[in-house]
Amino acid sequence: MKSIMFAAALVAGLAACGEKPQTNETSKNDSPAFNGTGKAYANQDWKQGDKASWESHLKARGQYGQNDYTRMN
To answer: 3-class SS at 65?
Structure first.
């Protein structure tokens, strides 16, 4: 009985050794967010590819659009 339990424990322990490594094979080279998507429905004040314009829009959105303290006053 002990040998059967030992064999079952051994098989269960070795089962974890057969796991395949998980890799991201469909990765792509991401471009920076300020490059945009090339779609026409982007904000008209923001020029796609202009990093300074992107950063100023993010700052304004964070300060006025998503800050509850400034929205409530």
So the answer is: helix
